[in-house]
Write a structure and sequence with these properties.
Distance between the termini: 39 Å
Order of helices and strands: HH
Low-confidence stretches: none
Number of strands: 0
């Protein structure tokens, strides 16, 4: 399950990286030449910082999913054991 979540995270990071690479090629590293609605301020975006933020958020969510599935599995095992005990007690 961990490999599946890791694969999904890597795939999403690759998609994000491709989108940023396209924007970088069009507008430059910090988007100095990007069109803006207002000419009063320049838009400056650090794509490397955005990628780092996105990857750290993704890793936090992945850890959360691992804990969720861990506790879900423990809950299911306990549920099966309790039902087995109840059924075996009622049958005897």
């Amino acid at each position: 399950m961990g490999n599946f979540l890791s694969y999904k995270r890597q795939k999403k990071a690759t998609e994000t990286r491709k989108a940023f690479a396209k924007a970088k090629s069009l507008y430059g590293k910090h988007m100095e030449d990007a069109p803006v609605a207002s000419t009063t301020k320049k838009v400056r975006t650090n794509f490397d910082e955005l990628l780092d933020m996105r990857n750290s958020r993704s890793e936090r969510f992945q850890r959360g999913y691992k804990w969720f599935f861990f506790f879900l599995a423990i809950g299911l095992v306990i549920f099966v054991i309790v039902n087995f005990i109840i059924l075996s007690h009622e049958l005897s």
